[in-house]
Amino acid sequence: MAKEIERAGIPVAHICSIITISQTVGANRIIPAIAIPHPLGNPKLLPDEEKDLRRNLLKKAFKALQTPIDEQTVFLDS
Amino acid sequence: MSGTSRNKQYRIVHYLNQFFGGVGGEEQANCEPRTIQGSKGPGRLFEKFFREQNVPVEIVATVICGDSYFAENQEKGLGEILPEIQGYSPDLVIAGPAFNAGRYGMACGAICSSLNPLGIPAITAMYKENPGVDQYRKTALIVECADIVTGMEDAVQKMVRLGKKVLQGEKIEFPKAEGCFEQGLRKNYFHAEPAYQRAIALLLQKIGSDSFETEYPIPFFDRVDPQAAIGDLKGLTIALVTSGGIVPTGNPDHIESSNASKYGRYSLEGLEKLETKTHQSAHGGYDNTYANHDPNRVLPIDMMRELEKELGFKQHEWYYATVGNGTSVDSAQKFAKEIAVELIRDGVQAVILTST
Q1: Which A residues 14-43 touch B at CB under 8 Å?
Q2: Percent of chain A that is helix, strand, coil (3-state, to 5)
Q3: pTM of the model
């Protein structure tokens, strides 16, 4: 889906739990998530900490969208 | 003593996920690797079919690991599983079959690919759209099988046929003859007919019939060039799309929990966050407990709203959702093409796609 939306002309940041699948299907801007059942959360954290985690992941996605790239890129901790 | 070697009992270690290993369903997908002595589940079928082929085998151990555990800790998982398998000095390792289960296929592929360089032959089986095929077909012998478990018997038969050859040191034929995915290896051999005759025959076949089969398919890599980076977020419209199955409570469009045939478009107007009473997960491929308790963990509306105010972009008032669980590549492409047309019409300039 990431690839087809990108093909249509809209940049996509893919926040996903299994990086290798995202690479295989051809997403270009890939942001590793936390875990399969809660990619943008962590039930072990306190609610405020969990929101911070979500904030950081989304900010990383925005940053990825603002970064010029020539090829598939995994955005690790920045 | 040639007699002993003929009667040699081959040692096999079998790798299964938590489901086929009998540990449990999705709620056990985080289970750490464990080993049981002997065969389990599909392992019994392997032993039966090997016996029918007069190949004396014993599944000495079955290594079981949760799909999510492996997917989320691949290096750690391999570090635990490989020595465990090596400890049994197997003549062959069988992983799966994994059908169209993505995480399971990735695990089977990773394990087989890591064992082969250690001198332990390993085979697995997957459906052609399993992401494990693209990722590992060059480094692992992967038998092509059906997408769902009703294809078990056929998959095991094909794996046994290949496994027998591996065990007895017989020559492995070209992938098509073995029912495997191409590994991209080039083998030289003498063909009975010279190339010019074959070229003319192929040309005539191409002209005269509906189908023809080339001797050398050109590899096809479907990649899309990255779009240019977006500038300042201020004033941009950003949409959320998810394959994690977050839908309004009750799943009004009846999106299937696996192999989805549709997607939904849902309004976010007036919503500051997703709540357990308004939204749920319809996804059948992961334990929904955490997502149902707080759907923002998959579709982060709460934080998008906060950041919308802080950073000055505009959250698109509709989000799109489907279930990415054994969903065919064709369906996913079709959904995304339709979604993209609407997003462009609505002036969306960037998308955040979340996947479980």
Answers
A1: 14-18, 20-22, 24-29, 33, 35-41, 43
A2: 40, 15, 45
A3: 0.72
